[in-house]
Amino acid sequence: MAKTYAIAVIGIGKITEDQHLPVIAKNPRFALAALVSQRGVARPGVPSFKTIDALLDSGTAFDAVAICTPPNVRHAIARRAIDSGKHLLLEKPTTATVTESEDLARRVAAKKGCVAFATWHSQYNAAVEEARRLLMGQRIARLHVEWKEDVRRWHPGQEWIWAPGGFGVFDPTINAFSILTRILPEPLFITAAELTTPANRETPIAARIAFRSDAASADAPLSAEVDWRQTGPQSWNIDIETESGTKLALRDGGSKLAVDGRPKVEARLEEYERIYERFAEMLDQGEGDMDYAPLRLVADAFLVGKRVETDPFEW
Ligand code: NAP
Fold first, then answer.
1. How many angstroms separate the CA atoms of 119 and 82, rounded?
2. Beta-carbon neighbour count of residue 109 at 10 Å?
3. If I label 100, which of 77, 119, 254, 291 is the partner at 20 to 30 A Cα–Cα?
4. Cβ atoms within 10 Å of 201's Cβ, excluding its own
């Protein structure tokens, strides 16, 4: 019989309540062993601790942790978990900096038997997989990402997203980047970025980004427009045209794919269900995935990006 893994969840915020806890509850491969919540959020019959140290000191038996805190505290928590011989599932983005992700990947590789899974939830759609298959060996003539959503709807009152290390609009943009790094046949490079930042905030609310790729000629238009000020219908679209003329349209965050205007894949969004199924497989096989290419692209956007000031933002 397949093993059930005892898992502790750290950081009981929006994504944990919306996805991690319900998905763990319905996946027989996992049993919720503990919560770690600074605010003391609890569930009946499940022990709750204020810190990972308190959890580890308690002697509670568990195999793995899911770390769902804001990114700036992930590295320290993940290191503690690795050093204590626990497996790891990291919410996106892996960590606040590239060097921290690199460090975790190195430590995981050095710790015998430790399985770490850097999750990029938008990669787990049938439409994304089909786009990847169709783009294999192709040259890209044009690419445009339109990732526009309403920050008040998706991040209500979350002040950390506006603090240094909070990513601003790159918090959702990294989902588009994770699709691009998954489906494109060659790496993508950021050549320029305009980071539109509210006068009273530290991180951008919108951005325009230009890319280049070895899979495209030097003058091919490869671009992204991302914005957190979109009310009404939300746009999570990626359009790619190959040099041979095939047009791929990924819609709704990569859940739908049309090819040359005709629907090709339309699947229900079950990203977190797929993530936990995959994590169970990784634990069974003893091999994880610490890819942090999407984080590197965000870092590059900040490195080459030009700050442009805009109106102050208030909730
Ligand atoms: P959130 O609602 O602000 O929740 C984060 C939780 O982490 C807080 O509620 C808090 O829970 C804990 N926390 C906050 N500061 C901490 C600190 N300094 N040290 C330790 N724990 C701390 O944020 P979220 O929307 O759930 O996002 C969390 C992560 O998931 C982010 O990296 C985000 O990018 C990613 N994510 C979010 C979404 C989404 O739709 N919102 C989707 C996919 C991925 P306790 O008080 O219980 O400790």
1. 17
2. 12
3. 254
4. 19
Q: What's the order of all strands across the beta sheet hosting 5-10? A: 48-49, 30-36, 5-10, 64-67, 87-90, 116-118
DSSP string for 223-245: EEEEESB--SS-EEEEEEEETT-
* 185 CA distance to ligand 1 middle (Å): 33
- Asked if residue 172 has a cis previous peptide bond (ω within 30° of 0), the answer is no
CA 52 to each of CA 42, 73, 83, 203, 303: distance values in angstroms, whole numbers, following the listed order = 15, 12, 12, 29, 33
C-alpha 186/C-alpha 135 separation (Å) is: 10
Per-residue pLDDT in tens (0 to 9) along the chain, 315 residues: 899 999 999 999 999 999 999 999 999 999 999 999 999 999 999 999 999 999 999 999 999 999 999 999 999 999 999 999 999 999 999 999 999 999 999 999 999 999 999 999 888 889 999 999 999 999 999 999 999 999 999 999 999 999 998 999 999 999 999 999 999 999 999 999 999 999 999 999 999 999 999 999 999 999 999 999 999 999 999 999 999 999 999 999 999 999 999 999 998 878 899 999 999 999 999 999 999 999 999 999 999 999 999 999 999
- Nearest protein CA to atom 8 of ligand 1, as residue: 13
First to last CA, the chain: 50
Closest residue by CA, ligand 1 atom 39: 15
List the catalytic residue out of 3, 50, 86, 92.
92
- Cβ-contact 123, 294 below 8 angstroms: no
What is the SS3 assignment for 137?
A: coil
As a whole number of angstroms, the distance between CA 65 and CA 87 comes to 6
Residue 23 is given by DSSP the state: H
Helix (H) or strand (E) holding 207: strand 206-213
| 256 catalytic residue (yes or no) | no
